[in-house]
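User: I'm putting together a small comparison set for a docking exercise, and I want a reference complex before I start. The sequence is below, and the ligand is nicotinamide-adenine-dinucleotide. Could you produce the 3D structure with the ligand included, as structure tokens?
Assistant: Of course. I'll restate your input first, then give the structure tokens for the complex.
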Amino acid sequence: MLLNGKTGLIIGLANKHSIAYGIAVACKEQGAELVFTYLNESIKKRVEPIAEELGSKKVIPLDVMNIEDMDLLKERVENEMGKIDFIVHSIAFAPKRALSGDTINTTREDFLVAMDVSVYSLIGIVQRLSPIMNDGGSIITLSYFGGDKYVPNYNVMGIAKSALQATVRYLAVDLGSRNIRVNALSAGPIKTLAASGIDDFRNLLKWNERHSPLRRNVSIEDVGGSALYLVSDLSRGVTGETHYVDSGYNIIGMPKDATVGD
Ligand code: NAD
């Protein structure tokens, strides 16, 4: 029981396909007590029964673009849990129109929304919640390979993930002296609500399956296993890093079966 006696906040549960769900199940199985956030009233109806299944009646509203929600976050988490040991930040958003075609067409408005929800939110949340985190605390966020290298249609979200991974490094230094760690978990492509916003996502799944060393895509359970390592004391010496759970796809420079046509 790696997380016995530990309490965690899970941000980004929408349904049972969410990466946050895979992580929450893994944490619960290892003894953690969890509190969940929900984006809006319709998502609340789905989050409440899932939270209950995971032994928690604790759900709080959080739209990171809503300043009131952000400012009430510390109080709401404190009311439910007192202090917390870990935070899972598993949210991102960009308007669908920004996730197809060429990056050169990205509007300023879409860029700012993507950066606000997918990157700044980590700073805003950590700013408010790190004062109520225990010594040895751990914060993780979800990234994707499209932040390291070009991936078709990922566009502004690739730029956001790159910024997110940099944010992790800077926050890790800020919080290191308090023995709180911050890491990113870069997951391979998984069919979720958020992923359905990316144009031709099916093709991305097929490409990864074919060209990753393990010759398969990862599941939310696979991501849950890696998250468990990062939120538990097993990774107590690890901070500011991006850890990959993508069937080894990130190590591929050129696919083994690549051919050059005439
Ligand atoms: P998901 O749709 O299940 O989760 C996204 C969550 O973001 C939802 O719970 C949604 O409510 C929340 N959200 C969106 N806007 C918000 C806002 N303004 N305030 C608060 N919450 C908001 O999809 P997912 O794939 O599980 O995404 C979780 C994370 O994993 C994201 O950061 C995503 O970029 C990342 N990721 C996904 C994949 C993939 O292929 N699915 C791969 C690597 C990384």
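The CA atoms of residues 11 and 89 lie 5 Å apart. The pocket of nicotinamide-adenine-dinucleotide is lined by residues 12-14, 18-20, 39, 43, 62-65, 90-93, 117, 142-144, 187, 189-190, 192-195 (CB under 6 Å).
User: Thanks, that's exactly what I needed.
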